[in-house]
Automatic annotation (TrEMBL):
Belongs to the amidase family. This is amidase. Its EC number is 3.5.1.4. SUPFAM superfamilies: Amidase signature (AS) enzymes. Coiled coil: none annotated. It comes from Corynebacterium efficiens (strain DSM 44549 / YS-314 / AJ 12310 / JCM 11189 / NBRC 100395). PANTHER family: GLUTAMYL-TRNA(GLN) AMIDOTRANSFERASE SUBUNIT A, MITOCHONDRIAL, TRANSAMIDASE. GO terms for molecular function: amidase activity; transferase activity. The keyword Transferase applies.
Length: 474
């Protein structure tokens, strides 16, 4: 089987599987062979499930041959982030402390993926306990960006980003507490969707911060993100944050043009201190939407000025509560950066945390008001480009700026509000991808996906792919 087949999107290959033009067993073997090979460069996988994956692929092939086709992901091989439990198998959270942890049950999303007929190929590298944005792990090594292996892939779902960008997984799942789906998706040239809080059940996903955590797709295309979200969305009573609302067919309304769309732009926050090539690429896409008939409207969300403090006060406090006992009994078993952040979280008082929740409510109210007048808000996903591995800073118009603060600056507000937000690639600068962020109304992922598909249809990436990928022949 040619490696070029691995270049295709999940939904493209899914159609070939449905028509029995492609064997899930042969496809899975080809992907596993390629993933093992490319992992020597990217370090995207923590562990592989070769034998189990081939058994699942064989079962899928037999079901399809018997006329029991389950949908667009049936027989599709994919790996998932290693903080999402697969029952009876090790889930490490890329940590030393949980390095041999085995859950009894599948996570809600893994159960749903199995029901969709997905073939699970392995678990993907991540920043330890999902609390970081460069994916430079002291326990499992750094993940390299497939566009430039000297650069970080973003985090915390860096292995997820690198795996899909290098064709080592057709689509995947990431988790997002301050941007950990959208940051690596932007850095690796992918579509990454953080759904509305409560849309996807989180049972069986190790928490970072209970009230901010989300699970969502990281994919090669908007169509893949739509199909993956459809597969994993839905209520599970075992997750107290899950919301019991209908799950639409997210693929049904993709495409079309921008007529009748009202696009919101918040200039004071989302276009302040942005690296020039990123701003130019995002504004060009906004102009293209307007040229297609969209209406552009400026919105004002003044409370964004306090969103960074609100995000950190909330996430650090909740994360430190989760890890409090291990901080007391096993502090040296944390990576140094993680230990520092968790210890920092112990310094926030109850007053600080509750004040942050009041600020959070104000931010949410202002976003809700702004979105009454517009269909979506468009912004850069990241204000800076991915730096070299190990660098604590990034370049913003030639100046060194703090990496963590800037990587989460534009993504964190959607975790505070719980609103759906998706990044789509809109071009390259110095060989690295640029991401554009689309923020929508609660539970209106369908519109966010539609806008993303309209942008994608203009081919802003001009067919360019990561140099580390499936370009040879098996």
């Amino acid at each position: 089987m040619a490696k070029e087949l691995l270049n295709k999107t999940a939904t493209e290959v899914g159609k070939l599987i449905e028509g029995r033009e492609v064997s899930p067993v042969e496809l899975t073997q080809a992907l596993l062979d390629h993933a093992h090979e490319v992992n020597e460069t990217t370090n995207a996988y923590i562990s592989f499930r070769d034998e189990a994956a081939l058994a699942e692929a064989k079962a899928a092939e037999e079901e399809i041959a018997g006329g029991n086709y389950r949908g667009p992901l049936h027989g599709i091989p994919m790996a998932i982030k290693d903080n999402i439990y697969v029952g009876g198998e090790v889930t490490t959270m890329a940590s030393k402390i949980h390095g041999e942890f085995v859950s009894q049950d599948d996570a809600s999303v893994v159960k749903k993926l199995r029901e969709a007929g997905v073939v699970l190929t392995g678990k993907l590298n991540m920043h330890e306990y999902a609390w970081g944005i460069d994916n430079n792990s002291p326990h499992f090594g750094s993940v390299q960006n497939p566009w430039n292996t000297d650069k970080v892939p973003g985090g915390s779902s860096g292995g997820s980003g690198a795996a899909v960008a290098s064709d080592a997984s057709f689509t995947t799942l990431g988790t997002d507490t301050a941007g950990s789906i959208r940051i690596p998706s932007a850095a690796c040239g992918l579509v990454g969707l953080k759904p509305t809080h409560g849309r996807v059940a989180k049972y069986g996903c190790f928490p970072l911060a209970w009230s901010l955590d989300h699970i969502g797709p990281m994919s090669k295309s908007v169509a893949d993100a739509a199909a993956t979200l459809r597969a994993i969305a839905g209520f599970d009573h075992r997750d107290p944050t899950a919301v019991d609302v209908p799950v639409p067919d997210y693929s049904a309304d993709l495409g079309g043009d921008a007529r009748d769309l009202v696009i919101g732009v918040e200039e004071d926050y989302f276009f302040r201190d942005v690296d020039s090539p990123i701003e130019q690429a995002v504004r060009k896409q906004i102009e293209d939407l307007v040229s297609q008939g969209a209406t552009l409207k400026t919105v004002s969300i003044p409370s964004l000025a306090i969103s960074e403090w609100t995000e950190l006060a909330t996430s650090l406090s909740e994360a430190s509560a989760i890890h409090h006992r291990d901080l007391q009994t096993r502090p040296d078993d944390f990576g140094a950066d993680i230990r520092f952040l968790f210890e920092l979280g112990e310094l926030f008082s109850g007053v600080d945390y509750l004040q942050a929740q009041q600020a959070r409510r104000q931010i949410k109210q202002e976003f809700t008001a702004a979105l009454r007048d517009v269909d979506v808000i468009i912004a850069p996903t990241l204000p800076v480009m991915a730096p070299d591995i190990g660098s604590p800073t990034a370049k913003l118009n030639g100046q060194d700026v703090d990496l963590i603060d800037n990587f989460i600056r534009f993504t964190g507000p959607s975790n505070l509000t719980g609103l759906p937000a998706m990044t789509v690639p809109v071009g390259l600068t110095d060989g690295l991808p640029i991401g554009l962020q689309i923020i929508g109304r609660a539970f209106d992922e369908a519109r966010v996906l539609k806008v993303g598909s309209i942008i994608e249809a203009t081919n802003p990436m001009e067919g360019k792919r990561a140099p580390v990928g499936a370009t040879a022949t098996v």
